[in-house]
Amino acid sequence: MAKGHRTQIKRERNENKDTRPSAKLSYARISVSKACFVLDAIRGKDVNSALAILAYNPRYASGVIEKLLKSAIANAENNNGLNAHDLYVAECYANKGPTMKRIQPRAQGRAYRIEKRMSHITIVLDEK
């Protein structure tokens, strides 16, 4: 059991809230492992070089992540009043989402299961 009153617990939780600009994409139709290849390439890079890496990366996930990174940059400029040239990718990760189960018919009346995986992708920016 948590100690203290409910409002006190909420107040303490909100004090530790992360104020860095971020963007999150939920239910992206790409598996976590495929998204992580692209995320590993941009982690720790400044925003301009990360956008350049994503623009020339041939993977499908790079287009999705590029759009998400542009959204995070816009959040930093409009909500936090930060300059885009001073930003870098502090954190980026993909968490597992729900899996859609589909059936593929096979020989002799059998059915194979196809799992269409989803992920929740998060990008957190920070100032240099």
Total count of strands: 3
One letter per element, helices H and strands E, the order comes to HEHHHEE
User: Which secondary-structure class do the elements indicate?
Assistant: alpha+beta
**Unreliable stretches:** none
Biggest sheet, open or closed, and with what strands and sense?
3 strands, antiparallel
Number of helices: 4
CATH class annotation: Alpha Beta
CATH architecture field: Alpha-Beta Complex
> What fraction, in percent, of the residue positions are helical?
25-40%
The shape, in one word, is flat
Can you walk through the features of this model?
- It is a single chain.
- The chain has 128 residues and is an alpha+beta fold.
- It has one domain: Ribosomal protein L22/L17 (Ribosomal Protein L22, Chain A, Alpha-Beta Complex).
- Helices cover 38% and strands 34% of the residues.
- The protein has 4 helices and 3 strands; from the N terminus they run αβαααββ.
- A 3-stranded antiparallel beta sheet has the order 1-3-2.
- Strand 2 and strand 3 form a beta hairpin.
- Helix 3 packs antiparallel against helix 4.
- The longest helix is centred in the middle third of the chain and has 19 residues.
- The mean pLDDT is 93.
